[in-house]
Amino acid sequence: QAHLVESGGGSVQAGGSLRLSCKASGSTYSSNFIGWFRQVPGKEREGVAAIYTGSSSKFYSTSVKGRFTITQDNAANTVYLQMTDLQPEETAMYYCAALGTTSTPAIEALGLMRQCLDWHIYKVWGQGTQVTVSS
Questions:
Q1: What is the pLDDT of residue 27?
Q2: Considering the chain, what is the average pLDDT of its residues?
Q3: Which residues contact 25 (CB under 8 A, 6 or more apart)?
């Protein structure tokens, strides 16, 4: 059963840091795109960062590049999002998602990297973890 579980959200002051975790089942984790997305009620879901676990290729939205870091721990089947210098505008529910329930071959992954911050292509979603940044 493919599944993802997020954790690590909480409340921080502006300028603070949090590390989010996304633990995946083995079939979901291996050679797959794992993305982090955030959403505020009434606003479009936004891609934040993504990683292709087969090659550790990493992608970031322009708004978080330089402040957020996505990493993988293969032994734990876990993808992390280290967030630093958080801003109040980044208060949101943060979700992790997997592109599919099975592995994506590297040659196919190359053609998907352009889209990997687009939430529409992801099929498996976690329950979300709330991040609140106060000023």
A1: 79
A2: 95
A3: 1, 2, 3, 4, 77
